[in-house]
Amino acid sequence: MPSTLDYALLAGASYVDTRRPTNRFPVPESWVSFKHESGTSGFEAISFVKGTVQKWGQA
């Protein structure tokens, strides 16, 4: 089960396009992002899985 810190880092890591590289959050260890959507409004969404993407059938 994700910890409170994992949730906070994943929430921060979901904003990639709107942040400079030095202000981006790290993805917690053992978590992987596999789908990134962004729009012109500034909204961004990223899917994360714990483990590998292949484990979840998203290769």
Question: Can you tell me about this structure?
Answer:
The structure is a single chain. The protein has 59 residues and is an alpha+beta fold. The protein has one domain (4-56). Helices cover 17% and strands 25% of the residues. Strands 1-2 form a two-stranded antiparallel ribbon. A hairpin with a 5-residue loop joins strand 1 and strand 2 (44-50). It is globular and about 30 Å long. The mean pLDDT is 83.
Structural class of the helix and strand makeup? alpha+beta
Give the SSE string. Answer: HEE
The Cα radius of gyration reads: 12 Å
Number of strands: 2
The stretches of 5 or more residues where confidence is low (pLDDT under 50) are: none
The profile of the biggest β sheet is: 2 strands, antiparallel
Give the overall shape, derived from the CA principal axes. Answer: globular
Total count of helical runs of at least 4 residues = 1
Number of structural units classed as domains: 1
Q: Please state roughly what percent of the residues sit in beta strands, choosing from under 5%, 5-15%, 15-25%, 25-35%, 35-45% or over 45%.
A: 25-35%
Multimerization state: single chain
Distance between the termini: 23 Å
Strands across the major sheet, in which order?
1-2
Mean pLDDT over all positions: 83
Compact summary:
The chain has 59 residues and is of the alpha+beta class.
Protein traits:
59 residues, globular, alpha+beta, 17% helix, two-stranded antiparallel sheet
Task: List strands and helices in order, with pairings.
Elements: H1 4-13, E1 31-38, E2 44-50
Antiparallel strand pairs: 1-2
